Amino acid sequence: MTVRFYLDDDLVELSEVDPTATLLDHLRYTMRRTGTKEGCAEGDCGACTVLVGEADGEGVAWRSVNACIQFLPMVHGKALLTVESLKQDGTLNPLQACMAANGSSQCGFCTPGFVMSLHGRAIGGSGSDLPVEDVIAGNLCRCTGYGPILEAGKAVGKQPGDYSALAAKLGALGAESASGEWQGRRWFAPRTSSELAALLAEFPDARIVAGATDVGLWVTKGLRTLDTIIFVGDVADLRRIEEDADGLTLGAAVRYAEAHRAFARLHPDLGELVRRLGGLQVRNAGTVGGNIANGSPIGDGPPALIALGAMLTLRSAAGTRTMPLEDYFVDYGKQDRQPGEFVASVHVPRPSSDTVIHMAKLSRRFDSDISAVCGAIALTVRDGTITAARVAFGGMAATPRRAAACEAALTGQPFTEAAIEAAAEALRQDFAPLNDVRGSSAYRLDAAASLLRRLWLREQGVVISVLDLEAAHG
After folding, report:
1. In terms of DSSP bridges, do strands 79-81 and 3-7 run parallel, antiparallel, or are they unpaired?
2. Per-residue pLDDT tens digits for 365-414
3. DSSP-derived secondary structure for 124-151
């Protein structure tokens, strides 16, 4: 099978594709598009940012991604823009010209990545409704030149382009399933869940890849060889978002950037948590289901979804089964997923009006960083009494986990500061965190307890964050 995609207006066709060849390496070493830089090879610095486009009605939906951890077959059927795409007829586009004029580029290494992130915003791509600061949160500047870059992004504003002709070309390009083989290693890109289930029945040991925001590092940093890969990012029925009065149902391949607004409608804290889940490039690639299926103890999504009582649906060729999300995580690196099964969807109930919620992520760096502790608390309070408690944490144990002793200390108690303090102390019975580079065991226990106290303070009208201050002033 040939991998086909459009680079600018030119169709690129590749045969004999290494399933884990990165888009970055192909751009730099084969296509000589050297404006796209390698800074970290782990999706953290944004120097390799490019725009990937998919047909969306009569237009093209663009999203910024880190080319260093995108595998080449993942762009099959899509369009691609690099920094070289912007200069037309020898003339810089308005964003490039503004950045050149106001001194936005210092050493210049990171500049192409910033340009592509801001260009994605300018043409109405994913995240174009976000402030400029959020759009470039996944781009790092070692020269600390953010001021002029922000000024350029705000000065240029929105410049929507006409991509109707490109959309027409993309229409049929990626509609059909794709597959390939290279030196005995295979890759598949199904388009339906039924096809995915059949492939997993045939290849139960295949590695499922959605956004590659974690698996990409297995290759670029861990130098792992993956023999059989199934790319699920284009499985149409795993991309659905269904929202009603009962709650929110998300297909496993829904990207976090796509789910952001729906999550925020469930609760503002959940929206804020998702906003800080990596930089925009990571949220434009990483999926809700992938974050769950990977089973990382420091994944930011699962603690919040567990606290809200999420239910997980798994599917295989034999059928489906549904379980509480917390039951899916068995032990470190072990999940309750049988051979041939895949995460199909997650349903998140809508919180009732008598539910008090606080969710927060604590990390060494505010933007685009891995959590030291991620906590989510949901208390049902009726007539001044806590009738139910769901408290979940990430970064505190081998899996995302509920705090049973803490919940027991809260349930049936009056909603008072004394009850919160008792629950904070009970947390020490629930967890014995590790010491690592992100925080000591003592720090994690103290931080988790502080999240409970923050919930209490917020309910008393105390401003505990800039977000609370903004909410207080409308």
Report:
1. parallel
2. 888 888 999 999 999 999 999 999 999 999 999 999 999 999 999 999 99
3. T-TTTTS-HHHHTTT---TT--HHHHHH
Q: Which of 126, 153, 176 is the last residue of a domain?
A: 176
Q: Which domain holds residue 61?
A: 1-176
Contacts of 384 (CB under 8 A, 6+ apart): 414, 415
Whether residue 229 contacts residue 186, with contact meaning beta carbons closer than 8 Å, is answered with yes
- Do 23 and 128 have their domain in common? yes
Distance CA 207, CA 209 (A): 6
- Domain identity same for 325 and 385: no
Residue in the structure block whose two tokens are 């904070």: 424
Residues 103, 106, 110, 111, CA torsion sign = positive
- Contact between 239 and 253 under an 8 Å Cβ cutoff? The reply is yes
Give yes or no for a contact between 413 and 381, defined as CB atoms under 8 angstroms apart: no
CATH code: domain of residue 308: 3.30.465.10
pTM, entire model = 0.94
User: Could you report the per-residue pLDDT of 317-376, keeping only the tens digit for each?
Assistant: 999 999 999 999 999 999 999 999 999 999 999 999 999 999 999 998 888 888 999 999
Task: Give the tens place of pLDDT for each residue, 439-449.
Answer: 999 999 999 99
